[in-house]
From TrEMBL:
GO MF annotations, alphabetized: phosphatidylinositol bisphosphate binding
Protein name stated in the entry: CRAL-TRIO domain-containing protein
Classification lineage: Eukaryota, Metazoa, Ecdysozoa, Arthropoda, Hexapoda
Record's GO cellular component terms: membrane
Stretches assigned to the CRAL-TRIO domain: 184-257
InterPro entries linked to this entry: CRAL-TRIO_dom, CRAL-TRIO_dom_sf, CRAL/TRIO_N_dom, CRAL/TRIO_N_dom_sf
Signal peptide per UniProt: none
CDD domains, per database record: SEC14
Domain of life (superkingdom): Eukaryota
Length: 309
């Protein structure tokens, strides 16, 4: 069974994603049978999971197969980001309490995109909250959105990072490779379309790092990036109208305090999923040598060298 889409999202699915409603059931069944035949991908998934990859692939079966394989393989190859994800671990609780990653309740004005707010400021402590842990919690929330949020899958995402008072100690961790890996997970791994990347209140060190890293991004993502160094939000409002920002920024899209509590509880409620996450390939059964992580991220990777013998 799959969820019914709203009228607005159904129109996007049909007109932009090539969805043919009376054919989705057979397409889903095709992918399920294909997965069963792959020794490393014999994993239980529900219809909604498979439909999400069909949608992000514009219903190309071959492209959907490639994206599913990449999604499940990367999760097996990057344990730093996809293991030890108990929401009640102190290091994860710290990031949830800080409200670093908050999907906002109201979608974009055309009722399509989900707006995701990232806050990298004085709510963070680089000594106890390294970027890899922030990265891990971000993927946990992305997993929930994949399971729950049709706006992300069909309409895409607008990602807004507010970096006011970002701790300078993160400079050593904020390398171009880390930026590339983070972007690549959204571009090539998760079945979400990234419509905009907006960064506001950039201190000089963040601004400089982003401008260097921007050269490593895909042309499509680079063209969709907006970086504002000053305290003016004018450029942001061109992408996300002010009324769709949280109350603390003059909008009406929830308060940061309430959203932090809501998403902390939601992640905690998914504890059993995170403890028994089966969304990963069995690399021992992969019939051929898997891709280097560079084939996915476009770099050799800063987490570790990921080639399986």
């Amino acid at each position: 069974m799959t969820r019914q889409l709203s009228k607005e999202l159904k129109l996007i699915a049909v007109s932009e994603l090539n969805e043919v409603p009376n054919r989705t059931k057979s397409d889903i069944e095709y992918l399920r049978k294909w997965m069963k035949k792959q020794p490393h991908l014999d994993i239980e998934t529900d219809d909604q999971f498979l439909l999400s990859f069909l949608r992000c692939s514009k219903f190309s079966l071959e492209r959907a197969k490639e994206k599913i394989d990449t999604f499940l393989t990367v999760r097996a190859l990057v344990p730093e980001a996809f293991s030890e994800r108990d929401p009640f671990l102190p290091e994860i609780q710290a990031i949830l309490n800080a409200g670093v990653i908050l999907p906002l309740p109201k979608p974009s004005e055309d009722h399509s995109c989900r707006i995701i707010m990232y806050t990298y400021g004085d709510n963070l402590d680089p000594d106890t909250m390294p970027l890899i842990n922030i990265f891990k919690v971000s993927q946990m929330i992305m997993d929930i959105l994949l399971m729950e949020d049709d706006h992300c899958v069909v309409g895409g995402m607008k990602n807004w990072s507010n970096c006011k008072n970002a701790p300078i100690k993160y400079l050593a961790q904020l390398t171009p490779l880390v930026a590339k890996e983070t972007t690549s997970l959204l571009e090539h791994v998760y079945p979400f379309r990234v419509n905009n990347v907006c960064i506001t209140n950039c201190p000089p060190f963040v601004d400089s790092a982003l401008r260097i890293a921007r050269r490593l991004f895909s042309k499509k993502t680079s063209e969709r990036m907006t970086i504002a160094s000053e305290n003016s939000f004018k450029d942001l409002y061109d992408k996300i109208p002010q009324h769709l920002l949280p109350e603390e920024f003059g909008g009406s899209n929830g308060s940061i305090e309430e959203l932090t509590a809501t998403w902390k509880k939601k992640v905690e409620d998914y504890r059993q999923f995170f403890l028994h996450d089966h969304w990963r390939a069995n690399m021992k059964n992969k019939p051929m040598k898997p891709k280097m992580i560079s084939n996915v991220f476009g770099t050799e990777g800063s987490f570790r060298q990921l080639e399986i013998d």
